[in-house]
């Protein structure tokens, strides 16, 4: 701070890492960022922060930033720096040529859940109004797409039900497949405070995460399930509640579809769902499951928090629906202290989904096949919208390998490193005739790109992010974009190079368009955000100041729906060659593939990925603490160091995916959620053997 001088001004903005959405004061000396100070009036964080938000912003000025556009005719050639005009003209000419030759559906877009709402809205508009198809997807595909599907089917709204404040009224916290201490640290602190005050904790996780046993916190029940058996565990909890008569019948009659409930009760009451019947499959002792079910049903206000350990499975959407069933069954909806709360990984996963960056949905989760929905956007945009849903990310890559998908605009997303089955992603990218990467850095995907458009960091742009509690927070420009343009401007320039004629001059205008076309956003404007600080959607004439807790007087979209959730084992099986199950996660100090955190001048960020293995499994393989090991699956292999720990059960190993040197996704499979294609990152059959190192 001394070197950077005394701050002379400050700008309130929002952290661009996780879905907690902490507010910060960016303290500036001229155009120099002196420090980030957590803002005490921030409604999501109330003056708290974690190390990433507070210290890991150095990447914005890192020497690796690319500041000028670049093009090349083939991916074997070196990059040529060119003007913005030349790069955009090159990109537009190639994309138009591809569409003329291969049809309008031969190109598409992938955007990032790190981008602002306004950027995301423009990218899906580019796809639909300029490219003329629905091939638009977001990296939410690989994390929380099952949340959108599952909560939409059961509750009628694809979002978490509560605000963060709600946890202060919770008596029993059920955490499934989430590690808030590392993934959502500021919310984890509030959660732990409530636990220290006496709330009970149930954790469903194959790994003994920090929250299971930390200072002054001890879970009443840790259910260390075998990876891939979430549905069996949640169904067993529901089975106990139904067969022991612990459900909240009055709530179900009042708020839910009673006929569907009766059908569900018959299904879930079947003995095949009992804790005793599933013990062999899940690995969780039946007595523990029964005790946990009784605690959740009778312990007072029960709140469910879940993460990617739920969604990133072949039954991700089924588990989300099973969780929703459990909440309705126990009447834990519609008041403080209860609810279903997906902990969103990235800063704007909620917003990316809200903004229609899915190939089947326009903004506001409305299906593109519905003529009256298309009519709203056709009138606003002055174009005809393709009624056919587009391709999801994995379908785009499959189609590229097959030769029918030829052009991709990839904004803020390193699909080569973050998507499963790296070799298949590379083959898809290599087969395309035009790949446009729009990013801060020459990421791994850019190795296959023909056009590189330099992006702006969150410090260099205006816009909004929507956090895990549906809170729309302002992102404010702290300094001028080092690359010359904000990201929404770059998308607009690309659209105009294709002939669009867009004339936005500020993201506030984009938000006006969003609120005029999207019912749950009709009350959202930059003026309202200035006035209130932030708002939680739905924000409309019925709730002009937003909606902290949803479904208070019954479900907002009709009656709650119990969905049948049959457990189906993943196709990924262990066997003699691959006898262990790998599951993955994050550490506090790193973020996803590390593109930002690894480029911050602080050595703590540079920890390597390691493999956690139970001492018994290590011993039989001749592996000792710190040894290099080879981690191999049916898909690929990598090398990393072993850490011996009983955090994981025998038969289970665990690693993180933060470092390109490890490329953990080389080993993950291409199995995915049946409803949404969210990859099954959390279950891979592997073998571990001693190695001499990479
Ligand atoms: Fe940023 Fe999340 Fe940390 Fe808050 S908890 S500072 S939003 S990374």
UniProtKB/TrEMBL annotation:
Q: Where is the 4Fe-4S Mo/W bis-MGD-type domain?
A: 8-64
Q: So what EC number does this one have?
A: 1.17.1.9
Q: Which GO terms describe its molecular function?
A: formate dehydrogenase (NAD+) activity
| Tagged with keyword ATP-binding | no
What keywords appear on the UniProt entry? 2Fe-2S, 4Fe-4S, Iron, Iron-sulfur, Metal-binding, Oxidoreductase, Repeat
Q: Which family does it belong to?
A: Belongs to the complex I 75 kDa subunit family. In the C-terminal section; belongs to the prokaryotic molybdopterin-containing oxidoreductase family.
Which protein are we looking at?
Formate dehydrogenase subunit alpha
What residues of the intact protein does this structure contain? 264 to 957 of 979
């Amino acid at each position: 701070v001394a070197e950077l001088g005394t701050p002379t001004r400050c700008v309130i903005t929002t952290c661009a890492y996780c879905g907690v959405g902490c507010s910060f004061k960016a303290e500036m000396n001229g155009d120099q960022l002196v420090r980030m100070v957590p803002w005490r009036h921030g409604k999501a964080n109330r003056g708290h922060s974690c190390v990433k938000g507070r210290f890991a912003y150095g990447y914005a000025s890192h020497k690796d930033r690319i500041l000028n556009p670049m093009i090349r005719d083939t991916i074997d050639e070196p990059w040529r720096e060119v003007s913005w005009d030349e790069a955009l003209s090159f990109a537009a000419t190639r994309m138009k040529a591809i569409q003329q030759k291969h049809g309008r559906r031969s190109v598409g877009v992938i955007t990032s859940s790190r981008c602002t709402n306004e950027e995301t809205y423009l990218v899906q508009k580019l796809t639909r109004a300029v490219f003329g198809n629905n091939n638009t997807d977001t990296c939410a595909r690989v994390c929380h797409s099952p949340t959108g599907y599952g909560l939409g089917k059961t509750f009628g709204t694809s979002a978490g039900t509560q605000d963060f404040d709600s946890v202060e009224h919770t008596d029993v916290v059920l955490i499934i497949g989430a590690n808030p201490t590392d993934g959502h640290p500021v919310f984890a602190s509030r959660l732990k405070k409530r636990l220290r005050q006496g709330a009970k904790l149930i954790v469903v996780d194959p790994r003994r995460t920090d929250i299971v046993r930390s200072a002054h916190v001890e879970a009443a029940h840790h259910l260390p399930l075998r990876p891939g058996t979430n549905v069996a565990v949640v169904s067993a909890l529901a089975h106990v509640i139904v067969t022991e008569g612990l459900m909240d019948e009055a709530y179900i009659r009042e708020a839910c579809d009673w006929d569907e409930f009766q059908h569900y009760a018959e299904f879930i009451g079947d003995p095949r769902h009992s804790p005793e019947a599933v013990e062999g499959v899940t690995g969780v002792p039946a007595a523990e499951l029964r005790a946990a079910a009784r605690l959740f049903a009778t312990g007072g206000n029960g709140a469910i928090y879940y993460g990617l350990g739920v969604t990133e499975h072949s039954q991700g959407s089924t588990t989300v629906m099973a969780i929703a069933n459990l909440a309705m069954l126990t009447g834990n909806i519609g008041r403080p202290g209860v609810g279903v709360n997906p902990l969103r990984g990235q800063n704007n996963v909620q917003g990316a989904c809200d903004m229609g960056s899915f190939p089947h949905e326009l903004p506001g989760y409305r299906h593109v096949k519905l003529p009256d929905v298309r009519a709203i956007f056709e009138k606003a945009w002055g174009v005809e919208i393709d009624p056919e849903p587009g391709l999801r990310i994995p379908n785009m890559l499959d189609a590229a390998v097959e030769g029918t998908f030829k052009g991709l605009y990839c904004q803020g997303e390193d699909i080569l490193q973050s998507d499963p089955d790296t070799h298949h992603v590379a083959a898809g990218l290599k087969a395309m005739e035009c790949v446009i990467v729009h990013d801060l850095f020459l990421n791994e995907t850019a190795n296959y790109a023909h056009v590189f458009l330099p992006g702006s960091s969150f410090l260099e742009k205006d816009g909004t992010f929507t956090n895990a509690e549906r809170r729309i927070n302002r992102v404010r420009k702290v300094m001028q974009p080092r690359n010359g343009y904000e990201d929404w401007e770059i998308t607009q320039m690309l659209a105009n190079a294709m002939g669009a004629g867009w004339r936005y001059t500020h993201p506030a205008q984009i938000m006006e368009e969003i609120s005029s076309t999207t019912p749950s956003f009709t009350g959202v404007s930059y003026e309202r955000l200035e006035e209130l600080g932030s708002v939680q959607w739905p924000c409309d004439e019925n709730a002009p100041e937003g909606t902290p807790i949803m479904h208070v007087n019954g479900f907002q979209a009709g009656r709650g729906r119990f969905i049948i959730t049959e457990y189906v084992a993943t196709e990924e099986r262990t066997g003699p060659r691959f006898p262990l199950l790998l599951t993955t996660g994050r550490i506090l100090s790193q973020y996803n593939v590390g593109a930002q955190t690894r480029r911050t001048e602080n050595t703590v960020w540079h920890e390597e990925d390691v493999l956690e293995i139970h001492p018994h499994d290590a011993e039989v393989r001749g592996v000792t603490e710190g040894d290099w090991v080879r981690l191999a699956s049916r898909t690929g292999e990598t090398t990393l160091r072993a850490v011996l720990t009983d955090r994981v059960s025998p038969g289970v190993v665990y690693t993180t995916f933060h470092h390109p040197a490890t490329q953990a996704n080389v080993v993950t499979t291409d199995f995915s959620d049946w409803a949404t294609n969210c990859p099954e990152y959390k279950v891979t059959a592997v073998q571990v053997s001693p190695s001499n190192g990479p």
